[in-house]
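Page 47, continued from p. 46.
Same chain as before, 197 aa.
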Amino acid sequence: MSDTRSADYTKRLTRLETSGIKRLLPTQAPYRWNLRRLKLGRVLDVGCGLGRNLLNCSPQSVGVDHNAHSVATCRERGLTAYTPDELAEAPDCGPGSFDSLLCAHVLEHMDEALAVDVLAQYLPLVKPGGKVVLITPQEAGYKTDATHVRFVGFEELREHAETAKVAVARTYSFPFPRPVGKVFPYNEFVLVGTLPA
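Result:
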């Protein structure tokens, strides 16, 4: 996981944003649509990276990332983002201050125990009855990043939800049916759940 803290990791993410077909087509459009249709309200985007998802959440949303270089990039883009220590001090980010938690393309970067700890750390910041959205890459996407340490599919997402006391509302493959994830690197596992009211 230490590789994801470096300036080089942030540079890699920046380079990937505009590489290949992404220069010609609005490849993020389906993912933006997916986030908007979930009606997440004020979101805490855990592992926000450069803010790709945060850009598509309500303006009051906040990102948190352990990579200070990525947090700086978010801020340069006009987004509100913090390192974990900064978030703990932020006056409007206390317990129950968010409508939803989004954790997209994060859990596969850490072992199971650390993933459980990260969710336990940030879920109290979501109001009772709030939404939780967990997103991970499928097989082809998992292979694209050397910092991925653990494959997290539907079964593992459900286990994380159960451990965190998140009631699963639905799981689905996006944007294409599940078999496509073996060859298309941008297919995702998505779990949507709610916290106890």
